[in-house]
Amino acid sequence: MARRETRHIPQTAAELNAEWFTSAVGAKYGGVVIEVETEVIGEGVGFMGELHRCKLTWEGGDAAPRSVIAKLPSKVAKNRSLGEGLAVYEREIWVYSEMRGELGILMPEFIHAELDPNPVPWLETLFVFLFEKLPIGGVSWVLDRLLSLGAKSPRRYLLVMEDIADARPPSQVAGGSINDALVGLDLLARFHAHNWMDQDRRDANPIIWGVGRTPKVLQASYRRNRDAFVHRFGSLIGEAMVAKMDEVQERLPLLASQMEQCPWTLCHGDYRLDNLMFRPDGETVVLDWQGLGWGRAGWEVAYFITTALEPHHRDEEQMLLRRYHQVLIGEGVQDYSYEDLVDDVTITKAVLAHRMVAGDDLLDTGMEDGQPDLVDVLVQRVVGWVDLEE
Protein backbone atom coordinates (compact mmCIF):
# COMPACT_ATOMS: atom_id res chain seq x y z
CA MET A 1 0.00 0.00 0.00
CA ALA A 2 1.68 3.19 -1.17
CA ARG A 3 1.47 6.54 0.59
CA ARG A 4 3.52 8.71 -1.72
CA GLU A 5 2.24 12.25 -2.01
CA THR A 6 4.16 12.90 -5.24
CA ARG A 7 2.73 9.88 -7.05
CA HIS A 8 -0.28 10.36 -9.29
CA ILE A 9 -3.36 8.72 -7.78
CA PRO A 10 -6.23 8.54 -10.32
CA GLN A 11 -9.52 9.99 -9.13
CA THR A 12 -11.52 9.74 -12.38
CA ALA A 13 -12.20 6.98 -14.88
CA ALA A 14 -10.24 8.83 -17.55
CA GLU A 15 -7.11 8.67 -15.40
CA LEU A 16 -7.35 4.89 -15.13
CA ASN A 17 -5.43 4.52 -18.35
CA ALA A 18 -2.89 2.05 -19.72
CA GLU A 19 0.10 4.10 -18.63
CA TRP A 20 -1.11 4.27 -15.04
CA PHE A 21 -1.99 0.57 -14.79
CA THR A 22 1.41 -0.37 -16.20
CA SER A 23 3.21 1.82 -13.67
CA ALA A 24 1.06 0.61 -10.77
CA VAL A 25 0.81 -3.15 -11.35
CA GLY A 26 2.77 -3.96 -14.50
CA ALA A 27 5.81 -5.17 -12.60
CA LYS A 28 3.60 -7.25 -10.31
CA TYR A 29 2.35 -9.29 -13.25
CA GLY A 30 5.35 -9.02 -15.56
CA GLY A 31 3.61 -7.23 -18.40
CA VAL A 32 2.53 -3.96 -19.95
CA VAL A 33 -1.08 -2.74 -20.20
CA ILE A 34 -1.68 -1.43 -23.71
CA GLU A 35 -5.41 -0.67 -23.56
CA VAL A 36 -8.07 -0.01 -20.89
CA GLU A 37 -11.83 0.01 -21.32
CA THR A 38 -13.79 1.34 -18.34
CA GLU A 39 -17.47 1.20 -17.39
CA VAL A 40 -19.30 2.42 -14.30
CA ILE A 41 -20.95 -0.35 -12.29
CA GLY A 42 -23.10 -0.45 -9.19
CA GLU A 43 -24.78 2.93 -9.75
CA GLY A 44 -27.23 3.62 -6.93
CA VAL A 45 -25.58 0.99 -4.75
CA GLY A 46 -22.17 2.30 -3.68
CA PHE A 47 -23.15 5.67 -2.27
CA MET A 48 -19.79 6.38 -0.63
CA GLY A 49 -17.74 5.57 -3.71
CA GLU A 50 -17.60 5.00 -7.44
CA LEU A 51 -16.99 1.56 -8.91
CA HIS A 52 -15.37 1.19 -12.31
CA ARG A 53 -14.84 -2.10 -14.15
CA CYS A 54 -11.58 -1.83 -16.05
CA LYS A 55 -10.98 -4.31 -18.87
CA LEU A 56 -7.24 -4.58 -19.43
CA THR A 57 -5.41 -5.64 -22.59
CA TRP A 58 -1.91 -6.85 -21.73
CA GLU A 59 1.31 -7.37 -23.59
CA GLY A 60 2.95 -10.13 -21.62
CA GLY A 61 1.80 -10.96 -18.13
CA ASP A 62 0.15 -14.32 -18.76
CA ALA A 63 -1.26 -14.50 -15.20
CA ALA A 64 -2.40 -10.88 -15.19
CA PRO A 65 -6.10 -10.08 -14.59
CA ARG A 66 -8.07 -9.17 -17.71
CA SER A 67 -10.67 -7.28 -15.69
CA VAL A 68 -10.43 -5.46 -12.34
CA ILE A 69 -12.62 -3.20 -10.22
CA ALA A 70 -11.33 0.25 -9.29
CA LYS A 71 -13.01 2.01 -6.36
CA LEU A 72 -12.80 5.79 -6.02
CA PRO A 73 -14.37 8.23 -3.53
CA SER A 74 -17.83 9.57 -4.29
CA LYS A 75 -18.09 12.75 -6.36
CA VAL A 76 -21.34 13.66 -4.57
CA ALA A 77 -20.29 16.30 -2.01
CA LYS A 78 -22.74 15.15 0.68
CA ASN A 79 -21.64 11.53 0.42
CA ARG A 80 -17.94 12.37 0.15
CA SER A 81 -18.17 14.46 3.32
CA LEU A 82 -19.82 11.62 5.23
CA GLY A 83 -17.27 9.16 3.84
CA GLU A 84 -14.44 11.32 5.14
CA GLY A 85 -16.13 11.77 8.51
CA LEU A 86 -16.56 8.02 8.89
CA ALA A 87 -13.04 7.26 7.56
CA VAL A 88 -14.54 4.73 5.15
CA TYR A 89 -11.99 5.12 2.36
CA GLU A 90 -8.95 4.72 4.55
CA ARG A 91 -10.56 1.89 6.51
CA GLU A 92 -11.40 -0.18 3.43
CA ILE A 93 -7.90 0.17 2.01
CA TRP A 94 -6.53 -0.96 5.39
CA VAL A 95 -8.82 -4.00 5.47
CA TYR A 96 -7.92 -5.14 1.96
CA SER A 97 -4.20 -4.53 2.24
CA GLU A 98 -3.59 -5.57 5.86
CA MET A 99 -6.42 -7.82 7.08
CA ARG A 100 -7.70 -9.70 4.03
CA GLY A 101 -6.25 -13.06 5.05
CA GLU A 102 -7.23 -12.79 8.73
CA LEU A 103 -11.00 -12.33 8.75
CA GLY A 104 -12.09 -15.86 7.88
CA ILE A 105 -14.32 -14.85 4.96
CA LEU A 106 -13.97 -14.67 1.18
CA MET A 107 -13.16 -11.23 -0.18
CA PRO A 108 -12.11 -10.10 -3.65
CA GLU A 109 -8.39 -10.43 -4.29
CA PHE A 110 -6.48 -7.30 -3.34
CA ILE A 111 -4.54 -5.92 -6.32
CA HIS A 112 -3.43 -2.38 -5.49
CA ALA A 113 -4.24 0.63 -3.30
CA GLU A 114 -2.95 4.12 -2.75
CA LEU A 115 -3.98 7.01 -0.52
CA ASP A 116 -2.69 10.33 0.69
CA PRO A 117 -1.62 10.44 4.32
CA ASN A 118 -3.98 12.06 6.81
CA PRO A 119 -2.75 15.67 7.14
CA VAL A 120 -4.53 16.20 10.50
CA PRO A 121 -4.73 12.84 12.32
CA TRP A 122 -5.51 14.60 15.60
CA LEU A 123 -8.69 16.19 14.22
CA GLU A 124 -10.80 13.04 14.61
CA THR A 125 -9.95 12.83 18.32
CA LEU A 126 -11.01 16.46 18.77
CA PHE A 127 -14.35 15.93 17.05
CA VAL A 128 -15.10 12.80 19.08
CA PHE A 129 -14.33 14.71 22.28
CA LEU A 130 -16.75 17.47 21.24
CA PHE A 131 -19.44 14.97 20.23
CA GLU A 132 -19.24 13.38 23.67
CA LYS A 133 -19.15 16.59 25.73
CA LEU A 134 -21.45 19.03 23.94
CA PRO A 135 -25.27 19.11 24.16
CA ILE A 136 -27.10 17.84 21.10
CA GLY A 137 -27.54 21.34 19.66
CA GLY A 138 -23.80 21.91 19.85
CA VAL A 139 -23.14 18.50 18.34
CA SER A 140 -25.31 19.44 15.37
CA TRP A 141 -23.23 22.59 14.80
CA VAL A 142 -19.94 20.71 15.06
CA LEU A 143 -21.26 17.98 12.75
CA ASP A 144 -21.98 20.58 10.09
CA ARG A 145 -18.41 21.87 10.38
CA LEU A 146 -17.01 18.35 10.09
CA LEU A 147 -19.10 17.55 7.02
CA SER A 148 -18.13 20.85 5.43
CA LEU A 149 -14.46 20.00 5.89
CA GLY A 150 -15.01 16.48 4.55
CA ALA A 151 -16.67 17.70 1.37
CA LYS A 152 -13.58 19.79 0.58
CA SER A 153 -11.01 17.18 1.50
CA PRO A 154 -8.07 17.02 -0.93
CA ARG A 155 -7.15 13.47 0.11
CA ARG A 156 -6.98 10.94 -2.70
CA TYR A 157 -7.89 7.27 -2.38
CA LEU A 158 -7.83 4.38 -4.82
CA LEU A 159 -8.50 0.68 -4.35
CA VAL A 160 -8.10 -1.91 -7.13
CA MET A 161 -9.46 -5.40 -6.55
CA GLU A 162 -10.55 -8.57 -8.27
CA ASP A 163 -13.59 -8.44 -10.55
CA ILE A 164 -16.05 -11.11 -9.34
CA ALA A 165 -17.55 -11.31 -12.81
CA ASP A 166 -18.89 -14.87 -12.61
CA ALA A 167 -21.13 -14.25 -9.56
CA ARG A 168 -24.82 -13.46 -9.15
CA PRO A 169 -25.34 -10.12 -7.39
CA PRO A 170 -28.71 -9.97 -5.58
CA SER A 171 -30.69 -6.75 -5.78
CA GLN A 172 -31.16 -4.82 -2.55
CA VAL A 173 -34.13 -2.94 -3.99
CA ALA A 174 -35.89 -6.10 -5.18
CA GLY A 175 -35.17 -7.87 -1.90
CA GLY A 176 -33.90 -11.37 -1.36
CA SER A 177 -35.22 -14.87 -1.00
CA ILE A 178 -35.23 -16.95 2.14
CA ASN A 179 -32.58 -19.17 0.56
CA ASP A 180 -30.31 -16.18 -0.07
CA ALA A 181 -30.89 -15.02 3.51
CA LEU A 182 -29.98 -18.43 4.93
CA VAL A 183 -26.76 -18.55 2.92
CA GLY A 184 -25.95 -15.04 4.09
CA LEU A 185 -26.67 -15.87 7.73
CA ASP A 186 -24.58 -19.05 7.66
CA LEU A 187 -21.65 -17.07 6.28
CA LEU A 188 -22.20 -14.27 8.81
CA ALA A 189 -22.24 -16.72 11.72
CA ARG A 190 -18.92 -18.23 10.63
CA PHE A 191 -17.41 -14.79 10.17
CA HIS A 192 -18.58 -13.69 13.62
CA ALA A 193 -17.33 -16.88 15.26
CA HIS A 194 -13.92 -16.56 13.60
CA ASN A 195 -13.52 -13.05 15.01
CA TRP A 196 -15.28 -13.56 18.35
CA MET A 197 -13.72 -11.40 21.07
CA ASP A 198 -10.49 -11.11 19.06
CA GLN A 199 -8.92 -8.07 20.64
CA ASP A 200 -5.84 -8.10 18.43
CA ARG A 201 -7.92 -7.70 15.27
CA ARG A 202 -10.25 -5.16 16.89
CA ASP A 203 -7.31 -3.03 18.02
CA ALA A 204 -5.23 -3.44 14.85
CA ASN A 205 -6.20 0.05 13.72
CA PRO A 206 -7.84 2.86 15.72
CA ILE A 207 -10.36 3.48 12.93
CA ILE A 208 -12.02 0.11 13.58
CA TRP A 209 -14.86 1.61 15.62
CA GLY A 210 -17.62 0.23 17.80
CA VAL A 211 -21.17 0.11 16.40
CA GLY A 212 -22.43 2.37 19.18
CA ARG A 213 -19.89 5.14 18.68
CA THR A 214 -20.90 8.82 19.13
CA PRO A 215 -24.68 8.34 19.54
CA LYS A 216 -25.17 12.10 19.93
CA VAL A 217 -24.35 12.53 16.24
CA LEU A 218 -27.33 10.36 15.34
CA GLN A 219 -29.48 12.15 17.90
CA ALA A 220 -28.52 15.49 16.35
CA SER A 221 -29.35 14.27 12.84
CA TYR A 222 -32.62 12.80 14.06
CA ARG A 223 -33.63 16.04 15.77
CA ARG A 224 -33.04 18.22 12.72
CA ASN A 225 -34.51 15.80 10.18
CA ARG A 226 -37.41 14.31 12.15
CA ASP A 227 -40.17 16.65 10.93
CA ALA A 228 -39.16 16.33 7.27
CA PHE A 229 -38.93 12.55 7.65
CA VAL A 230 -42.36 12.29 9.27
CA HIS A 231 -43.83 14.52 6.58
CA ARG A 232 -42.38 12.22 3.93
CA PHE A 233 -43.05 8.84 5.55
CA GLY A 234 -45.52 9.44 8.39
CA SER A 235 -48.59 8.13 6.60
CA LEU A 236 -46.64 5.04 5.58
CA ILE A 237 -45.09 4.11 8.93
CA GLY A 238 -47.87 5.27 11.27
CA GLU A 239 -48.00 7.18 14.55
CA ALA A 240 -46.98 4.20 16.68
CA MET A 241 -43.74 3.83 14.73
CA VAL A 242 -42.97 7.53 15.02
CA ALA A 243 -43.52 7.27 18.78
CA LYS A 244 -41.17 4.27 18.88
CA MET A 245 -38.45 6.21 17.08
CA ASP A 246 -38.93 9.15 19.45
CA GLU A 247 -38.48 6.73 22.36
CA VAL A 248 -35.23 5.47 20.84
CA GLN A 249 -34.09 9.07 20.42
CA GLU A 250 -34.29 9.56 24.19
CA ARG A 251 -32.62 6.25 25.05
CA LEU A 252 -30.04 6.05 22.24
CA PRO A 253 -26.84 6.49 24.32
CA LEU A 254 -27.87 3.61 26.59
CA LEU A 255 -28.94 1.39 23.70
CA ALA A 256 -25.72 2.15 21.80
CA SER A 257 -23.67 1.23 24.86
CA GLN A 258 -25.51 -2.08 25.16
CA MET A 259 -24.53 -2.96 21.59
CA GLU A 260 -20.84 -2.77 22.55
CA GLN A 261 -20.95 -4.90 25.68
CA CYS A 262 -19.23 -8.29 25.91
CA PRO A 263 -19.34 -10.63 24.19
CA TRP A 264 -18.66 -8.76 20.98
CA THR A 265 -17.26 -9.67 17.59
CA LEU A 266 -16.00 -7.95 14.49
CA CYS A 267 -18.84 -6.72 12.28
CA HIS A 268 -18.68 -6.20 8.54
CA GLY A 269 -20.54 -2.91 9.03
CA ASP A 270 -22.77 -2.98 5.94
CA TYR A 271 -23.73 -6.62 5.57
CA ARG A 272 -26.49 -6.29 2.95
CA LEU A 273 -27.55 -8.34 -0.05
CA ASP A 274 -25.88 -5.88 -2.41
CA ASN A 275 -22.56 -6.79 -0.84
CA LEU A 276 -22.87 -10.56 -1.31
CA MET A 277 -21.81 -12.19 -4.56
CA PHE A 278 -23.04 -15.76 -5.10
CA ARG A 279 -20.71 -17.76 -7.32
CA PRO A 280 -21.83 -20.79 -9.40
CA ASP A 281 -19.55 -23.10 -7.40
CA GLY A 282 -21.37 -22.23 -4.17
CA GLU A 283 -18.82 -19.76 -2.84
CA THR A 284 -20.06 -16.40 -1.57
CA VAL A 285 -17.75 -13.42 -1.79
CA VAL A 286 -18.34 -10.42 0.49
CA LEU A 287 -17.77 -6.92 -0.84
CA ASP A 288 -17.56 -3.39 0.61
CA TRP A 289 -15.41 -3.34 3.74
CA GLN A 290 -15.70 0.38 4.43
CA GLY A 291 -17.59 -0.11 7.70
CA LEU A 292 -15.61 -2.82 9.50
CA GLY A 293 -16.21 -2.38 13.22
CA TRP A 294 -17.09 -4.33 16.35
CA GLY A 295 -20.15 -4.93 18.49
CA ARG A 296 -22.78 -7.44 19.55
CA ALA A 297 -23.48 -10.08 16.93
CA GLY A 298 -27.24 -9.50 17.05
CA TRP A 299 -26.67 -5.99 15.75
CA GLU A 300 -25.45 -7.26 12.40
CA VAL A 301 -27.94 -10.13 12.23
CA ALA A 302 -30.82 -7.67 12.58
CA TYR A 303 -29.29 -5.31 10.03
CA PHE A 304 -29.00 -8.09 7.48
CA ILE A 305 -32.44 -9.60 7.95
CA THR A 306 -34.38 -6.35 8.02
CA THR A 307 -32.67 -4.87 4.97
CA ALA A 308 -32.66 -8.10 2.94
CA LEU A 309 -36.18 -9.43 3.46
CA GLU A 310 -39.63 -7.92 3.19
CA PRO A 311 -41.66 -7.75 6.44
CA HIS A 312 -44.01 -10.49 5.22
CA HIS A 313 -41.17 -12.87 6.11
CA ARG A 314 -41.55 -12.02 9.81
CA ASP A 315 -43.26 -15.37 10.40
CA GLU A 316 -39.93 -16.95 9.52
CA GLU A 317 -37.83 -14.73 11.77
CA GLN A 318 -37.48 -17.32 14.52
CA MET A 319 -36.32 -19.91 12.01
CA LEU A 320 -33.73 -17.49 10.63
CA LEU A 321 -32.41 -16.59 14.07
CA ARG A 322 -32.28 -20.24 15.14
CA ARG A 323 -30.32 -21.09 12.01
CA TYR A 324 -27.77 -18.32 12.63
CA HIS A 325 -27.40 -19.28 16.29
CA GLN A 326 -26.95 -22.99 15.53
CA VAL A 327 -24.13 -22.23 13.10
CA LEU A 328 -22.53 -19.81 15.57
CA ILE A 329 -22.59 -22.41 18.36
CA GLY A 330 -21.36 -25.07 15.94
CA GLU A 331 -18.34 -22.87 15.23
CA GLY A 332 -17.40 -22.91 18.92
CA VAL A 333 -19.07 -19.81 20.43
CA GLN A 334 -20.43 -20.75 23.87
CA ASP A 335 -21.07 -17.42 25.61
CA TYR A 336 -23.96 -16.04 23.53
CA SER A 337 -27.35 -17.61 24.17
CA TYR A 338 -30.28 -17.65 21.78
CA GLU A 339 -32.13 -15.41 24.23
CA ASP A 340 -29.23 -12.91 24.09
CA LEU A 341 -29.45 -12.93 20.31
CA VAL A 342 -33.21 -12.29 20.31
CA ASP A 343 -32.85 -9.43 22.81
CA ASP A 344 -30.09 -7.80 20.76
CA VAL A 345 -32.04 -8.18 17.52
CA THR A 346 -35.14 -6.64 19.09
CA ILE A 347 -33.21 -3.60 20.30
CA THR A 348 -31.34 -3.23 17.03
CA LYS A 349 -34.47 -3.22 14.89
CA ALA A 350 -35.78 -0.19 16.76
CA VAL A 351 -32.40 1.56 16.60
CA LEU A 352 -32.17 0.91 12.85
CA ALA A 353 -35.58 2.51 12.32
CA HIS A 354 -34.27 5.56 14.19
CA ARG A 355 -31.14 5.54 11.98
CA MET A 356 -33.29 5.75 8.86
CA VAL A 357 -34.00 9.36 9.86
CA ALA A 358 -30.31 10.17 10.30
CA GLY A 359 -29.42 8.40 7.07
CA ASP A 360 -31.97 10.47 5.17
CA ASP A 361 -30.32 13.58 6.62
CA LEU A 362 -26.67 12.68 6.03
CA LEU A 363 -26.64 10.70 2.78
CA ASP A 364 -27.74 11.40 -0.79
CA THR A 365 -29.25 8.09 -1.95
CA GLY A 366 -31.35 9.18 -4.89
CA MET A 367 -31.41 6.81 -7.84
CA GLU A 368 -31.48 7.70 -11.50
CA ASP A 369 -33.53 6.44 -14.45
CA GLY A 370 -36.76 6.41 -12.47
CA GLN A 371 -35.57 3.80 -9.99
CA PRO A 372 -36.83 4.10 -6.40
CA ASP A 373 -34.73 5.83 -3.78
CA LEU A 374 -33.06 3.14 -1.67
CA VAL A 375 -34.01 5.01 1.51
CA ASP A 376 -37.69 4.72 0.49
CA VAL A 377 -37.27 0.99 0.05
CA LEU A 378 -35.33 0.44 3.27
CA VAL A 379 -37.64 2.57 5.39
CA GLN A 380 -40.63 0.49 4.35
CA ARG A 381 -38.66 -2.69 4.91
CA VAL A 382 -36.91 -1.92 8.20
CA VAL A 383 -39.84 -0.37 10.05
CA GLY A 384 -41.99 -3.35 9.12
CA TRP A 385 -39.72 -5.54 11.25
CA VAL A 386 -39.84 -3.41 14.40
CA ASP A 387 -41.57 -4.85 17.47
CA LEU A 388 -43.82 -2.02 18.61
CA GLU A 389 -44.86 -3.79 21.80
CA GLU A 390 -41.34 -4.03 23.21
Description:
By secondary structure, this protein is of the alpha+beta class. The protein has a domain at 178-383: Aminoglycoside phosphotransferase (APH), C-terminal lobe (Aminoglycoside 3'-phosphotransferase, Chain: A, domain 2, Alpha-Beta Complex), CATH 3.90.1200. It has helices at 18-29, 77-85, 88-99, 123-133, 136-151, 178-194, 199-202, 215-237, 239-258, 297-308, 317-330, 338-362, 374-383; strands at 31-41, 49-60, 67-73, 110-115, 157-162, 209-210, 265-267, 276-278, 284-286, 293-295. The strands form 3 sheets. It has a 5-stranded antiparallel sheet. The protein has a 3-stranded mixed sheet with strand order 6-10-7. β8 and β9 (284-286) form a beta hairpin. α10 packs across α12 (338-362). The radius of gyration is 21 Å and the shape is globular. It starts with 17 loop residues before the first helix and ends in a 7-residue tail after the last helix. The mean pLDDT is 88.
Average pLDDT reading: 88
CATH level 3 topology of the domain at 178-383: Aminoglycoside 3'-phosphotransferase, Chain: A, domain 2
- What structural class results from the helix and strand content? alpha+beta
Distance between the termini: 48 Å
CATH architecture of the domain at 178-383, by name, is Alpha-Beta Complex
Regarding CATH, which class of the domain at 178-383?
Alpha Beta
Q: SSE order, as H and E?
A: HEEEHHEHHEHHEHHEEEEHHHH
Low-confidence stretches: none
What is the percentage of strand-forming residues? Answer: 5-15%
Biggest sheet character: 5 strands, antiparallel
Strand order of the largest sheet: 1-2-3-5-4
* Radius of gyration over C-alpha positions, nearest whole angstrom: 21 Å
> What percentage of residues falls in helices of 4 or more residues?
40-55%
What count of helical segments does DSSP give? 13
Number of strands: 10
What overall form do the CA principal axes indicate?
A: globular
Looking at CATH, the homologous superfamily of the domain at 178-383 is Aminoglycoside phosphotransferase (APH), C-terminal lobe
